[in-house]
Design goal:
single chain; alpha/beta; 22 strands; binds nicotinamide-adenine-dinucleotide
C-alpha cells in the first residue's frame, strides 16, 4: 500500500502537487441515508489561477516526455487504483448510492478504461511519400484540459478523461461534481505519486467553478460530461477563447422490439438497461417501442422483472436499485410522477413514490403515453420509463429518430440482417443490436444531435485531445 494515502478522510484539492486547503468548505450527502459526508474544499478564482499557472509549467515537461514514459506512468497509476479498488468502490456507494455490484463494475471499469486507452497506438499518418516530399499528419497535445465530471459515474468518467489527456501529452485539471466530489478528489490525490506536480490537479467547488473553468483563458480544452442544457452553456462560454470542446451530453435512447424475439429473455434485458443505476445513465433505455402483436405479453414480462427489483440502500446486500443521487434530481423526477394523474397516464407498474429516508423512487413503467408527452420527449434521468407499441417498421424508425437527442439506441430481433438494416437507419452515436450499453475504452463513444459534440475513448477519443499537425517535409532544398 502507498504511504500517506487513505481514502477514508482528508478530501483535498491538489494544486501543483500539493493539498490546497480553502477557507470555505462544503459537504456531500449519502443519498440513501441523507447522512452528511466529510467536508470538501470550495475553490476560489485564485485557486483556479494557481492551478492553471502550475498546469502551463507542467505542460512544458509532460508534453515533451516520451510517449512510452507517459504510458508507463499511466499504467502504474492504474495499478495503484486497483490496489485500492475496494475502498474506491465503497466510497462510490456512499457518495453516489449505487448498489454493490454496480459500484464494483464502475470501479473495475475506471481501471480498465485507463489500461484500454493506454493500449491504443496513436501513430503519425504518412499521407504522401514520393520522390520530392513526405507529408505526415501528427497528433499533438492541446495544452491544459479542464475535465468537468457529472455525478452519475464519478470514477469512470474521471479516469475516462484523465487517461487519454495524459497519454496524449496534455495536463489536466479535474472538477468533480459538487454532488460526488470524494472519489474524484482521491483519484487525483493518488495520481500525485505517479506524475510531476501540475500534470494532474483537482479543484473542488460549488456551482461557480464550472463557469470559471470554461471561461478561463489558460484552459485550452474542455472535456465535459453532463446535461445538454449545461453543455450548451459550456460551448457558449468556451467559444470566447476558442477552446477545443468535447461534450458528452444527455440521451433519450429508444429500444425497438420486433415480434420474433424471445419475450422473457429480451424483456429482462430491456428492463435491466432501462432501470440500471435507477435510470441515472445517459445511455439508459428511455423509450421502449414493442411490436403490437407481442405488446401485452412483453409488458407483462417487463412488469415481472421490475417487480423483482429490490430498492434500497446500495451498501446493503441484495439491493438491486439504489436511490437517486441528489435532492435536485429527486425533485425533477417527482414532476414526472405528478404528471401521471394530471395527464391520465396508464401505469403498468409502480406509479407512486413511497416515503423513505433517502431519495428512493419506485421503478415505474407508463403504458402507451402519447408520443408528444413529456415522459417520451424529455430525459427524466430517473426510474420512470414509457412503453409504446408499433405496427410498421418505417413508422417506428421515424418515431425513434423523432428526438433532439441521439446518443444510443438498440434493436431487438432474431433476424440479424433486419437488425443491421434497421440499425443503420437510426440517428445515434451508438446503435446496438440485441444488446445495449456495451462500452469499451477502445471504442469511440459520443452523441449525435443534442447528445454531444465529438467523441471520447477509442482512437478517435485520443485524437480529440490533440491538435492535428501536418508536416510537409521536402526531400531537397
Ligand atoms: P450537469 O450538467 O448538471 O453537471 C455536470 C457537471 O457540470 C458538474 O460537474 C457540474 O458542476 C458542472 N456544471 C454545472 N453548471 C456548469 C456550467 N454552467 N459551466 C460548466 N460546468 C458546469 O449534469 P449532471 O446532472 O451532473 O449529470 C446528468 C446529465 O449528464 C444527464 O443529462 C446525463 O444524460 C448526462 N450524462 C451524459 C453522459 C455521456 O457520456 N453522454 C454520461 C453521463 C451523464
Amino acid at each position: 500500500m502507498i504511504v500517506d494515502f487513505d481514502l477514508r478522510s482528508d478530501y483535498v484539492q491538489i494544486i501543483n502537487g500539493k493539498s490546497s486547503p480553502t477557507s470555505a468548505t462544503r459537504h456531500g450527502l449519502n443519498p440513501a441515508t441523507l447522512e452528511e459526508l466529510p467536508e470538501v474544499p470550495v475553490a476560489t478564482p485564485e485557486d483556479l489561477d494557481r492551478a492553471t499557472d502550475a498546469a502551463k509549467a507542467a505542460f512544458k515537461i509532460w508534453s515533451t516526455t516520451p510517449y512510452e514514459d507517459r504510458k508507463k506512468a499511466v499504467l502504474a497509476y492504474a495499478d495503484a487504483i486497483e490496489q485500492y479498488s475496494d475502498q474506491f468502490r465503497d466510497l462510490l456507494i456512499t457518495e453516489q448510492g449505487k448498489p454493490i455490484f454496480q459500484a464494483t463494475i464502475e470501479t473495475e471499469s475506471a481501471i480498465n478504461w485507463i489500461r484500454g486507452m493506454a493500449s491504443l497506438p496513436l501513430l503519425e499518418d504518412v499521407i504522401e511519400d514520393d520522390e520530392s516530399k513526405t507529408v505526415i499528419t501528427r497528433y499533438v497535445p492541446i495544452g491544459v484540459v479542464g475535465a468537468i465530471v457529472p455525478w452519475n459515474f464519478p470514477l469512470l468518467l474521471a479516469t475516462g478523461k484523465i487517461a487519454p489527456a495524459l497519454l496524449t501529452g496534455n495536463v489536466i485539471i479535474v472538477k468533480p461534481s459538487p454532488f460526488t466530489p470524494y472519489g474524484g478528489l482521491k483519484l487525483v490525490e493518488l495520481a500525485q505519486k505517479f506524475f510531476p506536480p501540475g500534470v494532474v490537479q483537482s479543484l473542488s467547488g460549488d456551482d461557480h467553478l464550472g463557469p470559471w473553468i470554461t471561461s478561463h483563458p489558460d484552459i485550452d480544452k474542455i472535456s465535459f460530461t453532463g446535461s445538454t442544457a449545461t453543455g450548451k452553456k459550456v460551448l457558449q462560454s468556451a467559444s470566447r477563447t476558442l477552446k477545443r470542446v468535447t461534450l458528452e451530453l444527455g440521451g433519450n435512447d429508444p429500444a425497438i422490439v420486433f415480434p420474433d424475439v424471445d419475450i422473457e429473455k429480451v424483456a429482462e434485458k430491456v428492463a435491466f438497461f432501462a432501470f440500471l443505476n435507477s435510470g441515472q445513465i445517459c445511455l439508459n433505455l428511455k423509450r421502449i417501442y414493442v411490436h403490437s402483436s407481442i405488446f401485452e405479453q412483453f409488458k407483462d414480462a417487463l412488469v415481472r422483472q421490475v417487480k423483482s427489483y429490490t430498492l434500497g440502500d446500495g451498501s446493503k446486500d441484495g439491493i438491486s436499485h439504489g436511490p437517486l443521487q441528489n435532492s435536485m434530481q429527486y425533485a425533477r423526477v417527482k414532476t414526472f410522477f405528478d404528471e401521471i394523474e394530471k395527464q391520465a397516464w396508464k401505469v403498468a407498474v409502480g406509479g407512486q413514490i413511497e416515503p423513505s429516508t433517502g431519495y428512493m423512487v419506485t421503478p415505474t413503467i407508463i403504458d402507451r403515453p402519447p408520443d408528444n408527452s413529456s415522459i417520451v420527449v424529455e430525459e427524466p434521468f430517473g426510474p420512470i420509463v414509457p412503453l409504446m407499441s408499433w405496427d410498421d417498421e418505417a413508422e417506428v424508425i421515424e418515431r425513434a429518430n423523432n428526438s433532439d437527442m441521439g446518443l444510443g439506441a438498440s434493436i431487438w430481433t432474431a433476424d440479424l440482417d433486419r437488425a443491421a438494416r434497421v440499425a443503420r437507419q437510426i440517428q445515434a452515436g451508438t446503435v446496438w443490436t440485441n444488446d445495449h450499453f456495451n462500452l469499451s475504452p477502445t471504442i469511440p463513444f459520443g452523441g449525435h444531435k443534442e447528445s454531444g459534440v465529438g467523441v471520447e475513448w477509442g482512437l478517435n477519443g485520443l485524437k480529440g485531445f490533440c491538435n492535428v499537425q501536418t508536416l510537409f517535409l521536402k526531400k531537397s532544398v
